[in-house]
Amino acid sequence: MDTELAVTSTTKLDDGDHDRFTHIVLEGYTPKDGEFVPLDNSVVGGMINATPVKALCGKVWVPGRDPEKYPICPTCKEIAQSMGWSLPNG
Hints:
- The protein has two helices and four strands; from the N terminus they run ββαββα.
- With about 90 residues, it is an alpha+beta fold.
- The protein has a domain at about 20-80.
- It has a two-stranded antiparallel ribbon with strand order 1-2. A two-stranded antiparallel ribbon has the order 3-4.
- A hairpin with a 7-residue loop joins β1 and β2 (about 35-40).
- It is globular.
């Protein structure tokens, strides 16, 4: 006796936001005895010029989404906290 099962898919596709994070980008630093030293890693510049930036965790991407909509990347957060940086809640 052969039996066939009908398989239906109810998988809902989304735009992939479930794996998106807000990443921390080091755009420059201030040495103890000097003024702010900018790096070539500006998020605003990346958004305007469609150029990639690099996060603390190593992710390289072209920024373009509102970072307030996503949680902070756990790896970026861990690195920043290990450096003694204070972070906003999120």
